[in-house]
Specification:
elongated; alpha+beta; 3-stranded antiparallel sheet; 180 residues
Length: 180
Amino acid sequence: MFEDINLSMVPKNKRPFALRQQIRALSPFRDYGYSCDWYDGHAAVWIWDRGLQERLRNEAEISGKILVVSESTLAPKRSEGCVLIRGFEGYFLQLWQDSRLIAEGSWQEKPSEEEIALFIDTYGLGHLDKPQSCEELQYRVSFREQISKRPLWITNSILAIIFSLLLYGISYQAISLIRL
């Protein structure tokens, strides 16, 4: 499920919290996961059923953590236009405007010209040209790219490590003083 969430009026330091609140309100799933790409205060958000994901993971007997991203986040970014992409198990259509993803739809079978036209018109973007061809998605996941999308996670991890080292140092010094 794709949502374009406009948080441009929310202060930058409060956007992560506001985003989580919006996702909680929008998600049709009780237990959900999501991934997000930011475009100048707009969040392109993909939401999925985490319960289904966990059931499938258990059936496949997979242990450990799994990095989950929406298949369409692997597609190249665009500045304008409409692009049809063939994914692993279907097709998805993306609408880009002002270098941000504003809409996305998916189909199990290749959508017809009429379905594409209706999707584009639904978003009031009838001026966009329909895609002339279907692109194949390239499955190259970069760990560096995924980490760069989560700078808050990096900051929190570094702070946790520094705090742990500081706590260790203080404990070591306190034990040394007690021994005197």
